[in-house]
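Intended use. Records like the one below are meant for learning the mapping from a protein sequence to its folded structure. Do not use them to infer anything beyond what is encoded.
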Amino acid sequence: PEDRGLLVAMSRVKIARQDWEGAQAISETLKKLGDESGASEQILGASLIGQKKYDESIAVFKDTQAAAPGKVRPMKNLVVAYLQAGKAAEAEAFLGTVLKANDKNAEAHVLLGLVRTTQKKPAEAEASFRRAIELQPASPVGYAALSKFQADAQQFDKAEETLKQGRAKLPTDKTVALGLAGLLERRNDIEGAIKVYEEQVKATPDDLIIINNLASLLSDYRSDAASFDHAEDISRRLAGIDIPAFKDTLGWIAYRRGDFQAAFKLLTEAAEKAPGFAPIRYHLAMTHLALKRPAEAKALLTVIDAALKDGDPLKEKVRAGLASANEAK
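Structure written out for the chain above:
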């Protein structure tokens, strides 16, 4: 009951479930235990934001930031609280004092870019993100912020170039790798994304998220036995971990290799844990179809089709699946 790591982890669950009183109770417990990490104030501030008690949350985060002026998390929490309260000018003024004390603070420049984006000052926002890269070219923070800003503005070529610059400077950094691979997937450059993940697996062989993403792309977009073997080999580390995305990847690999019973077991477990995640339900529906259960497949696919927006890449696959289910029936 006095394990601080467990208490902090529980607070995240409480906040995710909008149990604000429960989160505040954990904050109080941590204070009584003599917490010096600032976690109790962060939890309290987050719960106050959740309750839209913005002025109170700002006061809490001000105290936390004042106690640890050199740390990124308290600074970021305070800026977010200002923005949630609609006080962008105050956020900008606060960051002005931070940068006056240390103009080379790349994280502060990124936050200033976020504030200026909120203020609809795109040119100034971009300048802040570029300044962060200039100051700390060996940190992922500037590349991630600038590429997101560019992608949000539909400037996908520029976003890709920014992340490739970051990749050149930080060839083993997970943040940049995930950003670049995700953007390439979004642009339908699947082979490019696979290449990034392959390189990253070599750099961080124990990172389960990278392993899962690579195995998922190999099993989803390729059709040769060698790719399926590779996907199965690297995904062995995911077995036994109760995370829906991992079960989905393992289940789809089994499906692609023709082991439909194993696929059905894994995908059913994944769908029960994440009932609203359309790709998992699509994979489960296709497994029903492979097991000669077109009625069950059609029922699932019909629900997924209704929930997906036009233009969603999955929608075309779902429609094809529905056609197959109707033919089989």
